[in-house]
């Protein structure tokens, strides 16, 4: 999803506020949850952009849905709503997380495996692959994919490290057919 200049500015302002209040890590965690809500509920956008509902009702809806989030997040969502930019909320969240990750030396990664990884395995993968992308650590999301047969596939940004049995079999097949 492309990032608009406005989304980047709102994200930077929110990041500066979170940093001033010393709640960057909490804000990142809350924004990840909020992103899930926004991406899985298209009806929410329809309600928030519906002119039949008053601004106060829309703000009340945001406050209710995100009551457990950091107050600065609720206020940021209300600002986006008031500025008629609520449709950019996912871009603002993505931009915020990117800014926070850059400041903290962290990168998001997806690790595909045939079964759930233990905390120790996740830590070892984070340590090993973080150095390959010049970061301090990785924020790993573990996805289960039984079709891999064995091994892991790590995706960090646009880099793919594929050490799965399926990948090795495909490589062997290409070599034999060449």
UniProtKB/TrEMBL annotation:
Entry annotated with the keyword Cell wall biogenesis/degradation: no
UniProt cross-references to InterPro entries, sorted A to Z: ATP_synth_OSCP/delta_N_sf (IPR026015), ATPase_OSCP/dsu (IPR000711)
Origin: domain of life: Bacteria
Location in the cell: Cell membrane; Membrane
Gene Ontology MF, one: proton-transporting ATP synthase activity, rotational mechanism
Membrane topology label: Peripheral membrane protein
Keywords (A to Z) from UniProt: ATP synthesis, Cell membrane, CF(1), Hydrogen ion transport, Ion transport, Membrane, Transport
Matches recorded under Gene3D superfamilies: N-terminal domain of the delta subunit of the F1F0-ATP synthase (1.10.520.20)
Main location: membrane
Any one Gene Ontology cellular component term annotated for this protein: plasma membrane
Keyword presence, Cytoplasm: no
Function: F(1)F(0) ATP synthase produces ATP from ADP in the presence of a proton or sodium gradient. F-type ATPases consist of two structural domains, F(1) containing the extramembraneous catalytic core and F(0) containing the membrane proton channel, linked together by a central stalk and a peripheral stalk. During catalysis, ATP synthesis in the catalytic domain of F(1) is coupled via a rotary mechanism of the central stalk subunits to proton translocation.
The family this protein is said to belong to: Belongs to the ATPase delta chain family.
Identification of the protein by name: ATP synthase subunit delta
């Amino acid at each position: 999803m492309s990032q608009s200049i406005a989304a980047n500015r709102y994200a930077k302002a929110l990041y500066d506020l979170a940093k001033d209040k010393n709640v960057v890590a909490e804000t990142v965690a809350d924004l990840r949850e909020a992103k899930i809500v926004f991406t899985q509920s298209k009806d929410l956008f329809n309600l928030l952009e519906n002119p039949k509902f008053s601004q106060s009702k829309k703000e009340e809806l945001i406050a209710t849905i995100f009551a457990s989030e950091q107050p600065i997040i609720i206020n940021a969502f209300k600002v986006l709503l008031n500025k008629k930019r609520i449709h950019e909320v996912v871009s603002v969240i993505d931009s915020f997380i990117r800014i926070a990750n850059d400041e903290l030396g962290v990168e998001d990664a997806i690790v595909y495996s045939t079964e759930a990884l233990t905390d120790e395995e996740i830590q070892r993968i984070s340590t090993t692959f973080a150095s390959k992308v010049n970061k301090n650590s990785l924020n790993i999301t573990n996805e289960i994919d039984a079709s891999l047969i064995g091994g892991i596939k790590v995706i960090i940004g646009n880099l793919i490290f594929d050490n799965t049995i399926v990948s090795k079999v495909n490589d062997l097949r290409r070599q034999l057919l060449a």
